Amino acid sequence: MGTKTKEEPLWQQLTRKWDMTSWYPILAGCLVVWFLSCNQSTAAYISVNKNTLAVLTVIFYGILLCYAFYRKADTKTLVGLILLGGFLLRAWYVLSTFYGISLHDLRAFAGFDTAESGEGHLGYIEYLYKNHHMPDFDPRTRWSFYQPPGFHIISAIVLGITRVFQADAPLCYEGLQVVTLFFSSLTVWVGYRILKEFPISDSWVLLMTAFIAVHPFYSIMAVTLTNDSMAMCLMAFAIWYTIRWKKSPEIKNILVIALAVGTAMFTKLNAAVISFGIGFLFIYVFWTNRNQWKTYLLQFTVFLAVCAPIGLWYPIRNSILYRIPLSYVQKISTAQTDLYITESTFWARMGLPTWKQLSYPFLEFEPNLHSNVWIQTMKTSLFDEIRPDVGSSLFQSVALILLWVALLLVILMHYAMIRDCITRKGKQIPITLFLLIEYVTMLVSYIVFCFKEPFLCTMNFRYIPLTFWIPVIGTALWMQKDSELVSNKQSGAKSHSKKTGHAHSVFRSVLVCALAVFIVLSVLVDLDFVAWSNTSL
Q: Distance between CA atoms of 466 and 188, rounded to whole angstroms?
C-alpha cells in the first residue's frame, strides 16, 4: 500500500486528498474571486492586465492538462481539471466585467450616500440591504420588486459583508458577481453529478462534462446579476435528487427535493414548472409500492410541508396585502419598438429560421425580422443579447461557426435522445419519462410565454436552461448503449448489422467531432468575452 502511494505523482495525491469533483473547491474559488474583485489594488491591476493574465492562466492550465493526460491520470482527476478549467473561464469573465453589463432588468443602484434605492434587480438588492425587510409598498410600483426575493436577500447579505471591509461602492457592487459565479459553477457541477447517476462510461462522462463546463451560457450566467442563475441551480438540484430518490426513496432525499423546489420558487416563481415531472415520479413510485402507502404518504406530507411555505410565501403575502395575482408578471411596454413583435406570422416564429437569421450570430434588434423562437433561443444560449457591434470581426466569425456547430449538435443530440427513449426498457422507463416530462413542460411553458409576451427579450435561453441537459443525458446513454452493442458483436442479420453498424459509427464520429469543435470554439468565445468585457451587452 505504501509503495503504491510513493509511485503516484504528488499532484495526484493532492487531488485525491482534496476532491476536485466536489462542490467545496467552487466555494473556495469564489471566495478568492470575491477577495480579488473587492480589493482596490488587485481589482485595478486585473483591470489593466486582464488579457495578459487570462492568457497566462490558459497556458498554465493547458500545461497542467497535458501533463495529466501524459501521466494517464484517472477519470476523477481529469473531471476535476475539466471543472477547474470551466471555473477559471467564468472567474476571469467575472473579474474583468462591469457588474451592470446585462440588459436583463438590472437598472441601477442609488448609492450608499442616500437612503433611497434604485429599481430593477440592483435596486431590489439595495432596498433589502438598506431596509432589512421586504418591500412595505405595492411591489408593482417598482420595477422587478414583484419577484420573489431569494437571490436578492443573499446578494444583500454579500453586499453588507463587503461593506464591513470598507470597500469602495463600485467594488462592493462588483463583489456581488461572486453570487452568480457560485450558482452558475455549482450548476455545472450538478450536471456532472447527474451524469454519474446513469450507467455512462468514463469517456462519455469526460466529454459531456467538458461540453457543459466550457459552454458560454454558464459564463453569461456568472456575470448576470439576476435571479436566473440561482433558480437554475436549485432546479438542477431538485432534478438530481429526484433521480436519487427514485433509486433510494428515503425521507432525506425527498427533503432535499422539497428544499430545492421551494427555494427555487422563492427565487423565481416559474421554477414551479419542474413540479410536473417530479409529481409524475412521486405518483408512479407511490402506485408501484402502494403496499407501503403509509411510508410514502408521510414523505409526500413532509415534501408539501417544507416546499409550499417556502415557495409560495412571498406571492401569497403580496396577494393578501396588495391583491397581486399569484402568477403576476410585470408587463413590458409595447412602445419599445426595438423589442415588440407585431407582424410576424405563426410559422415565422415557430418554423425553420431564414438564411438571414442563420448568417449572423448575435441578436439584432429588428423584432419582425428576427422573431423566430428557435434561432433566437439558440443565439441567446451562446451569446445572450450581445449587440451586433460587439467584438472584433474575428470574434464574430468564431461566434458564427460556433452557432452552426451548436445547431448541428442540437439535431444530433435530439436524434440520439429520441432513439434512447425508444429503446428504454423495464426499470429505466420511469426516469426516462420523468426527464421527458420535465423537458416538454419547460419547453411548452416557454413557447406559451414567448407568444403571450411577444418581445425579443422573452426569447431567451435563460428561461429554460435545464432543457439543455435532457438531450445531453439521452445522447450519452444512447452512445453508451451503442458502443456496448458494437463491442458485443451480437449475431443475426449480418448484412443489416453491418449497415447499421456503419451508420452508427459515422454518427458517433460526427458527434464526437462536433463536440470537440464546440468545446474549442467555446473556450475561444469565453476568452473573447474577457477581452470585450467592457462592452455592454
A: 11
> Does residue 441 contact residue 277 with C-beta atoms inside 8 Å?
yes
Local structure of 356: helix, strand or coil: helix
Pull the grid cell for residue 36: 480579488
Contact at 8 Å (CB) between 322 and 138? yes
The answer to whether 143 touches 309, Cβ cutoff 8 Å, is no
Looking at the fold, whether 281 and 353 belong to one and the same domain comes out as no
User: By residue range, what is the domain housing residue 480?
Assistant: 346-531
Residue position matching grid coordinates 456575470: 223
Report the Cα–Cα distance between both ends of the chain, in Å, rounded: 55
> How crowded is residue 206: how many other Cβ atoms within 10 Å of its Cβ?
17
Chosen domain end from 328, 355, 378: 328
Residue type at 163 in one-letter notation: R
C-alpha cell read off for 511? 458527434
Mean pLDDT of 203-231: 93
What would the mean pLDDT of 416-426 be, rounded to a whole number? Answer: 83
Q: Examine the domain organization and report whether 401 and 523 are in the same domain.
A: yes
Same domain, 168 and 298: no
- Do 282 and 352 belong to one domain? no
DSSP state of 71: T
Of the candidates 148, 126, 285, the residue with the CA atom closest to the CA atom of residue 228: 148
Q: Where are the beta strands (DSSP E) in 183-298?
A: none
Number of structural domains found in the chain: 3
**Does residue 378 sit in the same domain as residue 489?**
yes
pLDDT tens digits, 133-179: 999 999 998 988 999 999 999 999 999 999 988 778 888 899 999 99
Give 321-367 as a 3 state SS string: HHCCCCCCCCCCCCCCCCCECCCCCHHHHHCCCCHHHHCCCCCCCCC
Residues 302 and 359 in one domain: no
Answer whether 150's CB lies under 8 Å from 142's CB: no
Measured over the CA atoms of residue 151, residue 157, residue 160 and residue 162, the dihedral's sign is: negative
Tell me: do 493 and 357 sit in the same domain: yes
Does residue 367 share a domain with residue 300?
Answer: no
Residue in the structure block whose three cell numbers are 438598506: 130
Residue type, 42: T
